[in-house]
Design a protein that fits this description.
Elements lengths: L2 H20 L6 H8 L3 H7 L3 H24 L5 H15 L2 H11 L3 H22 L6 H20 L6 H22 L8
Length: 193
């Protein structure tokens, strides 16, 4: 990782902190520089303006909490392996406070909304590919991928936050229910004539 990228990450981590604790309206150059003890010149050394910063912050979030998790999960080659790795990595690497804050930001800001829509599409497309390992029925794949993703998103919205052990057990139950449903809906094998 380059030194410049590392310096930018300090700005991003502070931006995430502001988003989680104070909301997107307080994600200003003034607040960033004050909290980091930096000058506005230091900010402009890395970013053209606040909009450029916001875009890079959202890109960093997408890479860290979506692209990387999917890439590592894809190293497995079975449904169970991918799902287990995805669950583990999501618990370890997803900052749920950031997820909630960015969704709130996306309700009011077109740039954040565009990133949120893209991230949701990337995640759902990945889940579709994962559940396609369970069933060849494309409608069933879409439905169970959406249910799985809604569980992931909904679990972030519960206040106070869901305990990781309860999340893992609940998700395991959901996956077991999905697998049972898929098995029951699977058409009987036709004998070759």
């Amino acid at each position: 990782m380059t030194i410049k990228r590392l310096h930018k990450e300090i700005w991003f981590e502070q931006g995430f902190h502001i988003l989680k604790t104070r909301g997107a309206a307080d994600l200003t150059i003034q607040n960033l520089t004050q909290r980091l003890g930096k000058t506005k010149g230091a900010f402009y050394h890395h970013f053209k303006n606040r909009n450029d910063y916001s875009g890079q912050l959202l890109q960093f979030w997408e890479e860290k909490q979506t692209t990387l998790i999917i890439a590592l999960s894809q190293q497995e080659d079975t449904f169970r392996g991918i799902n287990d790795k995805l669950t583990k990595l999501s618990l370890e690497n997803t900052d749920l406070g950031i997820e909630v804050a960015i969704r709130a930001w996306a309700l009011r800001d077109p740039l954040a909304r565009a990133f949120q829509e893209r991230v949701d599409k990337i995640r759902l497309d990945f889940l579709n590919s994962v559940f396609a390992l369970l069933t060849r029925d494309p409608e069933q794949v879409k439905t169970i991928a959406l249910i799985r993703y809604c569980f992931f998103i909904g679990s972030h919205q519960i206040i106070p936050g869901m305990d990781p052990e309860i999340y893992t057990r609940s998700l395991a139950t959901l996956i077991e229910m999905i697998e049972t449903h898929v098995e029951k809906k699977a058409p009987p094998c036709l004998e070759k004539r």
